[in-house]
Amino acid sequence: MAEEGDIRFGELAEESPRPRGRPEENPHLAVVTLGRPRESDPTVYFDLDALRQMELHAATDVDVELGGVMLGGQYVDADGRPFVIVTQAIAAAHYESTRGSFKFTHDTWSDIARQRAEHPSEWRVVGWYHTHPGWGIFLSDMDRFICDHFFSRPLDIALVIDPRRADRGVFCWSSQPEAPRETVRLGGFHIMSSMFRGHELAAHVHQWESEMSMAGRPGSEWGPRAGAIPPAPPPSPMPFWFPLSLAGSFLLQFLLLAMIAWRVLGLPGMPETLVPSPTDHSEGPSPIADASRNAAGLASSREVDAKLAVLDGLIQTQGGPEHAATALAEQARRNASLEASMLGLDAARAEAERQAAQSAKESRESKDTLERVRDDLSSRLAEAQSELRALKERNAALGIELARYRGETPSNGADGPSTADGPSTADGRTASLSHRTVWWLTAGGLVLLFGSAALVTGVLTLSRRRATIDSASVDHPGADRSSPSAASSHSHAPR
User: Fold this and answer.
1) Helix, strand, or coil here: 485?
2) How far apart are CA 323 and CA 315, in angstroms?
3) What is the DSSP string of 366-412?
4) What's the rounded Cα separation, in Å, for the pair 176 and 231?
5) Residue 191 three-state SS
6) pTM
7) Is the pLDDT of residue 239 over 70?
8) What whole-number distance in Å separates Cα of residue 490 and Cα of residue 492?
9) Whole-number Å distance between alpha carbons of 118 and 114
10) Span 212-229, pLDDT tens digits
11) pLDDT per residue over 285-318, tens digit each?
12) Fold (topology level) of 4-215
């Protein structure tokens, strides 16, 4: 709730929703639904940290209204369906508020604009939130005025939180084209977080579902609809010392009743003034003793009545015993909320410890793998260096052998290979000569081999031709005289 004269939002730029995939399509996010969203409602996603930030802000003061704005984005998916994502909340400061009103001042909006500039530029103002401590979830006439004049885009939303009843609800503009333009309460919304915080998200949603089920009525929605008559404000909160004083009064009454029973029944340990003396041999009860007992009982009764009257007056001044029961129920609800928060924190801590252990294990495995690779490379390098030394020694030995073969004397020791880091100048010349000599010997050997092969081939060919001519002469003895061509052939045959 706010007054019209104290709000200065400024001109809001109209822009179309940007295309983006829904959070459910992102495998790195966990999404849980709170409530029962209707098919006609635009889908709203709250980041878990943003929603918890607004819930904690609402719980800081449950006697007056608080508020702020929500940052995020308005998008459409591939099918053209709109949805809203709330990523961050900015709490209003420098405000004026009472039990039933909340005023945004100029300093409030200046501070919000300053904080808005510190966030990413793609985060836009998508709505506002405020509290109704003890009033329930609805939009008052002034709340609808604010939505109509300052958050009038089709996808702008309003979040209302009742920290006393542990209830919350989201309102948006009606998307029915034939229906009049009005704000309606969503049947439910979605909460998202990192997939590694799934246990924490589930714990918070379970707690909020339990609180909203207890605060609302059965059906598809929780709480009264927009525009419903707000419930009467709850009684003023009782002082913190009242439950303690009530418990102390009950304990005092119990002790007084125990003392009365102890005196009347004559239990062991009674004062001697109330017990008859064993030397008293009178047949009837002593009048003095009876008077003493009656006086003592009357005094005790008057004392008890006076103390009870004081306690009853104290209880009546504090509003009656029913306030004590209400305070105890409220404290039990807060204890349950704290226990759920502790469960979520324990789950988050366990998940963080598991991830840290997994990271440490992976780091150890990576270190072991790198050490094995380093050792393998070191061994291979040592083997390569050993092979290189062996090749150098073999090269030196071949040079020495070649020098001996040519009748030369090695200049760097004839008994063994050189152990220096590299061959000397004489060894270099010897190696060069040995390479040339080997080449010439190989070439000469190949020439001799091919020449011998050609000579053998020619001899074999000549022998076959002579054998052919001789066989022809034996078979045709008159061929030389009758055939001049044969004679010519014989005359030109090779010899």
Assistant:
1) helix
2) 10
3) HHHHHHHHHHHHHHHHHHHHHHHHHHHHHHHHHHHHHHHHTTPPPTT
4) 29
5) strand
6) 0.44
7) no
8) 5
9) 7
10) 766 554 333 444 333 333
11) 555 555 566 666 666 666 766 766 666 665 566 5
12) Cytidine Deaminase; domain 2 (3.40.140)
